[in-house]
Amino acid sequence: MAKPILDEALWAVLELLLPPDPPRPRGGRPRLPHRQVLTGILFVLRSGIPWELLPQELGCGSGMTCWRRLQEWQAKGIWQRIHHELLNWLGRLGHLDWSRASLDSGSVAAKRGGPLSGPNPTDRPRRQLGIGYRSAAAARDAAAFEKYQRDLQTLHRTAVV
């Protein structure tokens, strides 16, 4: 039998961090449980398939359901909390080697800037022409998604308990 995408130990940590389902006073179709949706999200992130090609046989709902929940959790800051909690959990288990950690200006904002800070001069011609730039929100979402994809893949690979 194949190894589950979301094992019991990892789910026990993540379950407490996910928000309760919103009330549905007018009824409607019940929401898919968080565990099934998270399994679908992890499957897409690990396999790299497009959201709309998420296999229904996995029982994770549609790719759009998983994508919408991913966006909802991102907007509520859930992924940031999950990231911190997983780092704490892996640290307690001794699976993190902080001697190899590094911090640079790509992951920490420069405080108060300075006379030499500003846009990259090599980008100015492209920016003036409006070529090759996504909206700020799309770029931020894409960067956050890629970071969490890498983090979740790394954490899921190392979360062998």
Features:
mainly alpha, 6 helices, single chain, 161 residues, 0% strand, 50% helix
Radius of gyration: 19 Å
**Biggest beta sheet attributes:** none
Helix content: 40-55%
Percent of residues in beta strands: under 5%
Number of helices, where a helix is a run of at least 4 consecutive DSSP H or I residues = 6
Shape: globular
N-to-C CA distance: 18 Å
- Rounded average pLDDT: 79
**Secondary structural class:** mainly alpha
**What's the β-strand tally?**
0
Structure description:
With 161 residues, the chain is mainly α. It has a domain at 1-15 and 32-94 and 139-161. It is 50% helix and 0% strand. The protein has helices spanning 8-15, 34-47, 63-75, 78-93, 124-129, 136-158. Helix 4 (78-93) runs parallel beside helix 6 (136-158). The longest helix has 23 residues, at 136-158. The protein starts with 7 loop residues before the first helix and ends with a helix.
